[in-house]
């Protein structure tokens, strides 16, 4: 890491989480007395290297219980995740350097362990290249046609489930996202934008508990994890 380079956090939280089929955006569903977003924000702020976090909210967000403080800034996100991340990066560029590092974390990953975040930061700062938390695929994965017919079995030895945070340099990530969006490239996470732009991306093993709450059944599992006392 260059002398003086710092680490920042970004949480895109402008989505509605339609697959949860609730009357409010899923990031505001509560577990253990706090919203998913607040849990995710607290987890990111618990990483020692993170100076502050920019949260990208939907325009006219009526649910946000967050109040800006010295380590939390709010900005308006966009229609897609990549739009919201880019908006948060633009806000960061007003106060940070292009060579600073950014950790982008999902608003609906409330169970991130600080130790996993610290391990990601240590790996990136040691290598000087961006990386993401990820988990090796342990299930057998099938390719399936639209009619339900199995087309083949994938080699799972090369497959990993992407998680967040994903950590890259501020300037490089902003440029990669901007170029990809302008080119109409489908971007599902920050790593995919960096891969498309030709940057090296590594994985750092994460934890099974760092799940993304996507469907109703995930809430119970997240509540179970958040109710556990983690030591060591």
General description of the model:
The chain is α/β, with parallel strands linked by helices. The protein has one domain (7-226): Spore Coat Polysaccharide Biosynthesis Protein SpsA, Chain A. It contains 6 helices and 11 strands. The chain has helices at 36-45, 81-92, 114-127, 170-182, 190-196, 216-226; strands spanning 7-13, 30-31, 34-35, 50-57, 72-76, 101-104, 130-136, 142-144, 150-153, 160-169, 201-205. The strands form 3 sheets. It has a 7-stranded mixed beta sheet with strand order 5-4-1-6-10-7-11, sandwiched between helices. The protein has a two-stranded antiparallel ribbon with strand order 2-3. A two-stranded antiparallel sheet has the order 8-9. Strand 2 (30-31) and strand 3 (34-35) form a beta hairpin. The mean pLDDT is 90.
Question: From N to C, what is the helix and strand string?
Answer: EEEHEEHEHEEEEHHEH
CATH homologous group name: Spore Coat Polysaccharide Biosynthesis Protein SpsA, Chain A
Low-confidence stretches: none
Adjacency order of strands in the biggest sheet = 5-4-1-6-10-7-11
Q: What is the subunit arrangement here? A: single chain
Shape: globular
What is the annotated CATH architecture?
Alpha-Beta Complex
* Number of H/I helices: 6
Tell me the strand percentage band: 15-25%
Number of extended strands: 11
Helix content: 25-40%
Question: CATH class, please?
Answer: Alpha Beta
* N→C terminal distance: 28 Å
Q: Structural class of the helices, strands and pairings? A: alpha/beta
Rg from alpha-carbon coordinates: 17 Å
């Amino acid at each position: 890491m260059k002398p003086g380079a710092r680490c920042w956090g970004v949480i895109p939280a402008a989505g509605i989480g339609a697959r949860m089929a609730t009357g409010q955006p899923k990031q505001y569903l509560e577990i253990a007395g706090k919203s998913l977003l607040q849990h995710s924000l607290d987890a990111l702020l618990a990483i020692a290297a993170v100076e502050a976090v920019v949260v990208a909210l939907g325009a006219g967000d009526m649910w946000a219980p967050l109040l800006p403080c010295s380590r939390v800034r709010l900005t308006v996100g966009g229609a897609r995740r990549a739009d919201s991340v880019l908006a948060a990066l633009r806000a960061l560029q007003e106060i940070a350097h292009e060579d600073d590092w950014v950790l982008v974390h999902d608003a609906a990953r409330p169970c991130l362990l600080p130790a996993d975040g610290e391990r990601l930061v240590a790996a990136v700062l040691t290598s000087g290249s961006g990386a993401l938390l990820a988990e090796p695929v342990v299930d057998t994965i099938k390719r399936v046609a639209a009619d339900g017919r199995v087309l083949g079995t994938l080699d799972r030895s090369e497959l990993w489930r992407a998680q967040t945070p994903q950590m890259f340099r501020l300037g490089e990530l902003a440029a990669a996202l901007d170029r990809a969006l302008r080119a109409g490239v489908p971007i599902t996470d920050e790593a995919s934008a960096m891969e498309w732009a030709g940057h090296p991306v590594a994985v750092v093993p994460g934890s099974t508990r760092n799940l993304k709450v996507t469907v109703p059944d995930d809430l119970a599992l997240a509540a179970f994890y958040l109710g556990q006392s983690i030591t060591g």
